[in-house]
Design goal:
heterodimer, A: alpha/beta, two-stranded antiparallel ribbon, 8 helices, B: alpha+beta, 17 helices, about 20% strand, rod-shaped
């Protein structure tokens, strides 16, 4: 598993490197973003939110993006679509990187930020922004129990507490699901989505288990 | 249907039974098979549809994330259903995401699911398409294709089994219908056979066997009854026919005979006959026509009459034949044919059909050359005869005249002798003696007369002589006057004879009474000799135009005959009544009636024929020529008698003016 993870990291790293140095890589990146956005959109269809939360058909499904601005911009494309017969709204959340330096002082701000995150149905975390693993775990801890589908795109996302992690395999985007996390967040994931997942984590993962 | 209709009843019945059975069973089987087929199909469709629905659900996510592997995996579950040969999942852009093939070697191209979701039957295949809907949105389609060959195989197996079951059934049906058809066909066939025997053999004594009392039985019964009637009628007919044949034969013979007679008559007629149609074609010609025209049948029959008769190429306008055809009036024509040296008389008569329409004409032709010759000769003979009779008549009249003249001469002779006797015995001779005596006494005449004895008687004597001479003179004068009269009579007779002789054959204007009187006069001597009393009853009539001499001849002859008849009669009173009366407007009748010997009935008809006579020395010419003469004068001479001993009346009837007399000599 380790070697696999490393290998994946190497690929990712090299991909990032390639992406950084070549305009072609930048273009590929945009394609990949598009695919990810499609995946996220489809996930909404295969996931059922609990009745209490924003089940009102008139309320939009809010997709929160924590990542680069261009990704958030790209995400705005899904606002034209509907899912579960509801409109989609994309919101970008910033400032979570800074939290790692002054955790304590910004408690109030943190809580405020977490509360704003809780308004979302879906939260997308982009790996490229290097959100601190601890911060992420902290966010997930804070969001624990909230019916929010968290989607990430980096290794260890599930272990950090995320529900669905997108990953690239042989030029194809695939995903893995942390079923335990989803149950914890009161989300029901369609069986076929689970069947399609590369990996389904069914038990509560020990923190830092794999690191 | 017409094939069926020409079959024998036996085959018909079997065929009908077989057809019915096969049709019903086939229909039942067909219906079963179709129902089964529909059922299987519906099952299949339902099965496939449920599979498609399940697959659509299963592949929803795979399609959403375009996970071909996962879709493939899902589809491979279909291998549990052996009939599914192929399945595919397509995106909504009709891109195939994943396929399933039962047979891996199957390399048929990917079928693209159509836009329309549903069921469609292809060749040996059933396609079920189902939309894949995610979140109320069609994201793709799934196509599942089932191979129907198994289905067909099953169907064929069904049919085979059915066939195996049906074959013996049909056989049984055939055997049964073949056996049972006899119940119906036998009586009909028997009837048909009987009918054939009857129709072929014309034997109406045959009867059909009646099998039962059903409809065919009734038919057979009716047929037999009919046969009986026909038999009866046939025998009657045969009888009638035989009679008819005999009659026809008889009639034919009669017709042949009639035709032969007609032909013979036609050809044996001396007159030539040609029969023509309306267009002048000669249809028939008899032998006499051949001889007269010196032409053969072929030269006449079928040729135009104007060719044959006139040697022309067309009908001469206004020819007699044309008139016959146009007016329907008969015509006649005499024509001399130089090439035949014959004078030919052609008579044309129209031929009419039963409606009175002219259909043609008949020519009757005669070679009149000889006839004309004979007629000429006859005319000459007749003329001679007339002359002879005239002469004979003249002779007869002359005889009578001479007879009369002789009588008168006799009378003259008597008168002359009387005169001679008177003169020779005349007392005048004694005068000489007296004169001589007186001469002797011339000197004393006075004395002599007074004295002389002798002388005294002289004056008395002279007175007596003078008286006697006076008597003689008156006697002689009387005789001489009679003599003169008789001579005048002779002269008259001669004159009359001369006048009749001269007037022969000429019509003159004359008083018929004179002629009758002349006729009586001519016969006076004979009449007187036989003591016949003439009773003339002559009316006053105007002068008429007659051949005086001929009439006189006839009348003289009639009076002579009457004289003869009364002379031979035993009647004391011999009467001859001669009457002359007007008869009608312009005719007269002279009747000479005697009370003589009469005429026997059988002689009345012969009396005018030449050579018939009852007189001892008669020549049988008088009445014959009289009758002829009367006829020539446009009159008639007839006789009537009540029988022998009852007298006779001859009647000469004459016109005042003969038809041919144009002028009368005054």
């Amino acid at each position: 598993m380790l070697t696999m993870k490393n290998y994946r990291l190497i690929i990712l790293a090299s991909a990032v490197f390639v992406a950084a140095i070549s305009p072609q890589a930048q273009a590929d990146r945009n394609v990949e973003d598009g695919l990810k956005i499609g995946f996220v959109y489809n996930f909404i269809k295969f996931v059922d939110w609990p009745g209490g939360k924003s089940s009102d058909a008139n309320e939009p499904i809010i997709v929160g993006v924590i990542g680069p601005e261009n990704l958030a911009k790209a995400f705005e494309a899904i606002e034209k679509k509907k899912a579960k017969n509801r409109s989609l709204v994309v919101r970008r959340f910033v400032g979570f990187e800074k939290l790692k330096e002054s955790d304590k002082e910004n408690d109030a701000e943190w809580n405020q930020r977490i509360e704003s995150l809780k308004t979302c149905h879906v939260l997308v975390f982009s790996d490229k922004h290097r959100v601190a693993i601890k911060n992420l775990e902290k966010i997930f801890d804070a969001l624990k129990g909230s019916p929010i589908l968290t989607v990430g795109d980096h290794a260890g996302f599930l272990e950090q507490g995320g529900i669905i992690n997108l990953l690239k395999e042989k030029e194809k985007i695939r995903f893995e699901i942390n079923l335990a996390s989803s149950i914890r967040n009161k989300l029901k994931i369609n069986a076929s989505l689970l069947a399609m997942a590369k990996r389904v984590v069914r038990e509560e993962l020990a923190k830092g288990d794999e690191n | 249907m017409s094939i069926l209709q020409n079959m024998t009843i036996k085959h018909k019945l079997v065929t009908i039974a077989m057809l019915t059975t096969v049709a019903t069973l086939s229909l039942a089987v067909g219906a079963y098979v179709i129902w089964e087929w529909i059922d299987i199909r519906e099952d299949m469709v339902a099965k496939l549809s449920s599979h498609a629905a399940v697959m659509a659900e299963s592949c929803k996510a795979a399609l959403a994330f375009e996970d071909a592997d996962y879709a493939q995996k899902m589809l491979s579950a279909l291998s549990a259903e052996s009939s599914i040969a192929y399945a595919c999942v397509c995106t909504k852009e009709d891109r195939v995401l994943a396929t399933y093939r039962r047979d891996l070697a199957d390399d048929s191209p990917h079928a693209i699911a159509t836009d329309e979701a549903g069921v469609s039957f292809g060749r040996n295949a059933l396609n079920v398409t189902s939309d894949i809907v995610l979140d109320g949105e069609k994201t793709g389609t799934i196509l599942i294709r089932a191979d129907l060959s198994e289905l067909f195989d099953e169907l064929i197996r069904h049919l085979q089994i059915t066939g195996i079951i049906l074959a013996p059934l049909f056989l049984i049906t055939y055997v049964l219908s073949s056996r049972l058809q006899k119940i119906i066909s036998k009586p009909i066939l028997d009837l048909a056979n009987t009918a054939e025997v009857v129709s072929k053999g014309k034997d109406y004594s045959v009867r059909a066997y009646q099998h039962g009392n059903d409809e065919v039985g009734s038919l057979t019964k009716a047929f037999n009854t009919m046969l009986e009637q026909i038999q009866q009628r046939d025998s009657q007919l045969t009888e009638v026919n035989e009679n008819l044949e005999a009659k026809v034969e008889e009639r034919t013979d009669e017709l042949i005979e009639a035709n032969r007679n007609w032909q013979e008559s036609f050809h044996s007629i001396n007159d030539g006959i040609t029969i023509h149609d309306k267009d002048f074609n000669i249809l028939r010609a008899n032998k006499a026509a051949e001889q007269i025209l010196n032409l053969s049948q072929d030269q006449m029959v079928g040729h135009k009459c104007y060719e044959v008769y006139h040697g022309r190429n067309s009908a001469l306008g206004g020819c007699p034949g044309c008139k016959v055809l146009a007016n329907g009036e008969s015509c006649g024509l005499e024509t001399f044919k130089p090439h035949l040296n014959k004078l030919i008389e052609v008579k044309g008569m129209p031929r009419f059909d039963e409606n009175g329409e002219i259909v043609g004409m008949v020519h009757v032709i005669q070679d009149i050359t000889e006839r004309r010759q004979r007629e000429k000769e006859l005319q000459k003979v007749q003329k001679d005869l007339v002359q002879a009779s005239h002469r004979a008549g003249m002779a007869e009249v002359a005889t009578d005249v001479l007879h009369n003249v002789g009588n008168i001469l006799n009378s003259i002779n008597v008168s002359t002798n009387y005169i001679k006797d008177k003169i020779s015995n005349s007392k005048a001779a004694n005068l000489g003696k007296v004169m001589a005596i007186m001469a002797e006494h011339s000197d004393d005449l006075g004395t002599f007369f007074t004295e002389d004895e002798q002388g005294k008687h002289v004056p008395t004597y002279l007175t007596e002589v003078a008286r006697l001479i006076g008597e003689e003179r008156s006697d002689v004068t009387e005789k001489v006057e009679s003599l003169v009269r008789n001579i005048g009579h002779v002269k008259d007779i001669v004159k009359t004879q001369q006048s009749y002789a001269r007037a022969g054959g000429v019509n003159v204007s004359a008083n018929i009474t004179d002629v009758v009187e002349d006729a009586i006069e001519v016969n006076t001597a004979g009449l007187q000799r036989h003591g016949v009393q003439i009773i003339p009853e002559l009316d006053e009539l105007p002068e008429i135009c007659i051949d005086k001499q001929r009439v006189l001849q006839i009348l003289v002859n009639l009076i002579d005959n009457g004289k003869y008849a009364v002379s031979k009669s035993e009647n004391q009173e011999k009467l001859l009544t001669i009457s002359c009366r007007r008869h009608g407007e312009d005719r007269l009748r002279i009747e000479v009636t005697d009370n003589g010997m009469g005429i026997a009935q059988e002689d009345l008809t012969k009396i005018f024929t030449h050579g018939f006579t009852t007189k001892l020395h008669g020549h049988g010419f008088g009445l014959h020529s009289g009758a002829l003469a009367a006829k020539e004068m446009d009159g008639s001479l007839t006789v009537h008698s009540d029988g022998p001993g009852r007298g006779a009346t001859f009647t000469l009837e004459l016109p005042f003016q003969p038809r041919e007399a144009t002028a009368c000599v005054q």
